[in-house]
Design a protein that fits this description.
mainly alpha, 2 domains
Length: about 80
Amino acid sequence: MPHLSVSIGVLLAMVSTGVLIYSIHHVSVSIQADEVVARVGRELEAGIDKLYPGQFGQSASELSAALHESTSPQRSQARLVLWAT
């Protein structure tokens, strides 16, 4: 019986050590600058979508007209926007 108790105690100590290592890793990743900036960007986009749920910018027909009438850089931008919508 004491052997079982010691084995369970060692197992729990190993699990606790693993959880501590994971916790330290998670905190160190979450406070890195690029992670903070990405999280703020996601929150900003969510806030903008909540405040302004409609779509802004040119309509698809305006983009099609711009695609046929514009120069090469503007044409490629219009294609990208049409593709993304």
